[in-house]
Amino acid sequence: LQHPFAPRVVASAGDLKDRVRRMKEADAVLHSLPGFDCGLCGAPSCAALARDAAAGEALASDCLPLARERVEELLRVNSGAD
């Protein structure tokens, strides 16, 4: 049985210390995301976006719902409605 899709594997996974650092960074990014798993950023889940951000392949700001919330917050603060 052949599978039409191959898993994406990072060519240079790095040593254990680097992988642990990326895991911690991904966890921090994941906690900053809204957790909608909407896929609007292009990643299938917030966890996938966080892993990609930690690997330098994406940015947390790629999260469209989060970007919208930040823009709305900036507009409220700058308009004095807060």
How would you characterize the overall build of this protein?
The chain has 82 residues and is mainly α. It is built from 3 helices and no strands. The model has no long low-confidence stretch (mean pLDDT 84).
Blueprint of the fold:
Elements: H1 16-32, H2 46-54, H3 64-79
Give the key terms.
82 residues
Structural class: mainly alpha
**Distance separating the two termini:** 59 Å
Q: Total helix count? A: 3
Give me the strand/helix succession: HHH
Low-confidence stretches: none
The number of strands is 0
Strand content: under 5%
Mean pLDDT: 84
Shape: flat
Biggest beta-sheet profile? none
Alpha-carbon Rg, integer: 16 Å
**Residue share in helices?**
40-55%
Question: In short, what is this structure?
Answer:
With 82 residues, this protein is an all-alpha fold. It is 51% helix and 0% strand. Helix 1 (16-32) packs across helix 2 (46-54).
